[in-house]
TrEMBL record:
Root EC class: transferase
Enzyme Commission number, as recorded: 2.7.1.180
Transmembrane parts of this sequence: none
Protein name from the UniProt record: FAD:protein FMN transferase
Organism phylogeny: Bacteria, Pseudomonadati, Pseudomonadota, Gammaproteobacteria, Cellvibrionales
The family this protein is said to belong to: Belongs to the ApbE family.
Reaction equation(s) it catalyzes: L-threonyl-[protein] + FAD = FMN-L-threonyl-[protein] + AMP + H(+)
Cofactor(s) in the UniProt record: Mg(2+)
Length: 303
């Protein structure tokens, strides 16, 4: 068995795919197919691409419905379920709020600007079927960024399985999916980075066929008049949440892990702990003071 690694940049960050196989040609071809799939999905759903589905839907907001395919309808169906299960906290129309928040400026936005943008946020005002999608008000925006990287992670792992790869790890800028273990009978061991000490792990997690996704506000934040404002925004208020600094969740699919971690970040800390405990999935969370909370299935317990 040989180890093959392929690195590239996509989805806004560094990507790495690690394959263990006894067939070099099979491994190399599978790695190329994975990158092609990730780039296909980036091109299809990026809000920055002129020809993307996202741009088409947003450009037609308040005017007309846009034809969509089965894949896009599937993503919208998942987003709808996540919206309902999170009582509206997971909302793919809330990306519009970034127009108010510039985390490089060091300043908080005008509250009136936030209020005006909030009027155009609301999942209920997206009308969609299996074949079309329509944002009801001009100026509204749909942003698949809340789920497409996790979906791409799962899709890449599926390609590896379909090509006969039994041992692999897909890592798209921290969103991960494993195909089996490492091939030597051991799982993939993943360190969960501590937000207050990036060189150290808050916990470790073993993956063997599972996925892992993380959400955190420690990389983009504003310190203003003694208060800290992270980049994860509550779609109900338009303002940053005041809960955990970081949350990681493991699940059979990265898409599920990602939305679970995001919802946990959007809840107040105590409410988030109760919600995570009811999930029945391995998780680890770190509060702004650096205290680690963890499901018992993770490598370490409470810090």
């Amino acid at each position: 068995m040989q180890s093959f690694e392929h690195s590239f940049k996509a989805m806004g960050g560094p990507c790495k795919i690690h394959v263990i196989s006894s067939h070099e040609k099979t491994a190399v071809a599978a790695l190329a197919a994975c990158e092609a799939e990730v780039r296909r999905l980036e091109s299809k759903y990026s809000r920055y691409r002129e020809g993307s589905v996202t741009t088409a839907i947003n450009s037609a907001a308040g005017v007309e419905a846009v034809e969509i395919d089965k894949e896009t309808a599937g993503l919208l169906a998942y987003a709808d379920t996540a919206w309902r299960e999170s009582a509206g906290l997971f909302d793919l129309t809330s990306g519009l709020l970034r127009q108010a928040w510039d985390f490089r400026s060091g300043k908080i936005p005008d509250p009136e600007l936030v209020k005006s943008l909030l009027r155009k946020v609301g999942w209920k005002r997206l009308r969609w079927t299996k074949t079309s999608a329509f944002l009801q008000e001009a100026g509204m925006e749909l942003d698949f960024g809340g789920c497409v990287k996790e979906y791409a992670t799962d899709s890449a792992a599926g390609i590896l399985r379909n090509r006969g790869i039994d041992h692999a790890l897909v890592d798209l800028a921290g969103d991960m999916a494993s195909v089996g273990g490492r091939g030597d009978g051991e799982p993939w061991v993943i360190g969960i980075r501590h937000p207050n000490s990036p060189a150290h792990a808050a916990a470790t997690l073993e993956l063997s066929g599972q996925a892992l996704a993380s959400s955190g506000d420690y990389e983009r934040a504003i310190e203003f008049e003694g208060n800290r404002y992270g980049h994860i925004l509550n779609p109900r208020t338009g303002w940053p949440v005041q809960g955990f600094a970081a949350v990681s969740v493991s699940a059979p699919q990265c898409l599920v892990a990602g939305s679970a971690a995001t919802v946990a970040m959007l809840k107040p800390q105590e409410e988030s702990l109760q919600w995570l405990s009811r999930l029945g999935l391995p998780w680890v969370a770190v509060d702004p003071a650096g205290e680690v909370f963890s499901d018992e299935l993770l490598g370490r317990g409470h810090g």
